[in-house]
Amino acid sequence: MRASSDGRRPRRQSRRTHANLEKARAYMKERAEPVVAKLVQQLAKSQPDDILGFIADFAARERRELAAEEREVRRSGQQLGDSVSECGLEAEARASTEANHP
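Request: output the structure for the sequence above.
Response:
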C-alpha cells in the first residue's frame, strides 16, 4: 500500500463504502448516463447561446415525454387488467353454466 502525502497509510474502503460506490456507479450507468448522453448530443448539435435555458427546456421536454410514456404504460396495464378480468368473468360464467347444465 502506498503512503499518502502526509506519510500515513490510506484506509481501506469498508464494505459499506464499497457497496455505496457500486450502487452509485450502477445509478449513473443505468439512469443518468442515457439522459446526459442525449443532452450532450443535443447541445453539440444545437450549440445554443443560452446553455442553461437549453438545459432547462431539455429537462422539461424529457419530463413531459417520460410522463406521457408512464401514462401509456398505465393505460396498457389497465387494458390488460380489464382483459384479464373479462376473461376471468367469461370463464366463471362458463363454469357456472356447465355446472348447472351438465
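The two ends are 82 Å apart (CA to CA).
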